[in-house]
Amino acid sequence: MNKIFFNYLFLLSFSLILFSCSGDKIESSEKKIEKNTSKIDKSKLINFTVDQYKLSDIEVGSIELRNLNDILKLTGTIEAQPNSVATVSAPLGGYIKSSGLLLGQFVKKGEHLVTIENPEFIKIQQEYLESNAKFEYLSQEYLRQQELRNSDVNSSKTFQQISSEFNILKARVSGLEQILAIISINAESLKKHKKISRTVNIYAPISGYIKTSNVNIGKYITPTDAIFEIAGIDGLHLELNAFEKDYGKIKIGQAVKFSMSNEQDYNHTGKVFLIGKSANEQKTFPIHCHFKSIKNIAPGMYVKAWVETSSEKTTAVPLDAIVQFEGLDHIVVQTAEDKNGFTFQLLQIARSREQDGYIAVKLPSNMNYSKIKIVTKNAYTILSAMKNAQEE
Fold first, then answer.
1. Does 31 have pLDDT greater than 70?
2. What is the spatial distance between Cα 97 and Cα 368, in angstroms, rounded to a whole number?
3. Is residue 255 within 8 Å of residue 237, measured between CB atoms?
4. 231 neighbors 300 (Cβ within 8 angstroms)
5. What is the pLDDT of residues 207-238, one digit of tens each?
6. Any bridge partners for residue 228, and if so which?
7. End-to-end alpha-carbon separation of the chain, Å?
8. Is-contact 211 299, C-beta < 8 A?
9. Mean pLDDT of 383-390
10. Which of 87, 88, 97, 91 minimizes the C-alpha distance to 197?
11. What is the rounded CA–CA span in Å between residue 261 and residue 303?
């Protein structure tokens, strides 16, 4: 009986010793986590062996203090300055005889665009040649009568009459030359060759791309019809659309980052130079922005843009460091590392603005961001392992 009681006491003492040692080990582990995580909550922990860590291709980094901006996300288009857009018309109207230009085609200044036919062209050229012939004769007669008048041979009335006819005809010839210039007929060439044409050519007033076209062979064009609209390649700018709720946040001089429709990154930069004062039919306000030269763009192209409305330094993490757990934003913190593996823990954060692949985050007030290691790659692998461990 005494032997049995002695054995019982021995086993009981041994169990107490084991429990005490186990408790010391747990307490030591908690102190280690406490030291490395600056009082991070001890729930939601997961351990990875060295092999699991390497197999998961995990990368860790630091929480950074970055200069992130409050941004407005806007959309818009590439537009040309008003002096870089030209509307091509036929000043006297006429029938379209030839044109081979397509929408989007590039044309140089002075390039032939379209040929117009109009019987009125014949009358104007005929009148010019007749008036010019009379003017040449009257010029000689004017000089002769002037010499006679200087010699007091003819009367002053005769000279005044010739002088009046000379000035009237001179004004008519000058006016006809201006009309010929408007319809793109060279008066000097017409006067020299005496060749009347029923058609005229219309040329591009600027270099640019054909934006609109109203051309059909045989179609009659009135002087008020636009045959072509050419968008110049100089003076391009952004025209962004801002809603009323964002209008007051935008100021002249603010920085803009934008991307074309086929681009993912906002690599192009610009600045706000003009803010529209009235809303359009879509109830948005136009925001005009200058930008640095970009190759292979044209007016009308769609853009996505960020307008930077304010700037301050804040704690930030890469986009890939954010994971969703139970509907809340978290980051994965590495709380311990030794030869046996790594310990990770979920830390809830509050996120705000996003820019250039980083998100501004708000950490618990008792944490020192510079001492925390976070998972920057494959954070969801750790989250999945943590969920599986909880289910088991």
1. no
2. 78
3. no
4. yes
5. 888 888 988 899 999 999 999 999 887 778 89
6. 88, 213
7. 45
8. yes
9. 82
10. 97
11. 6
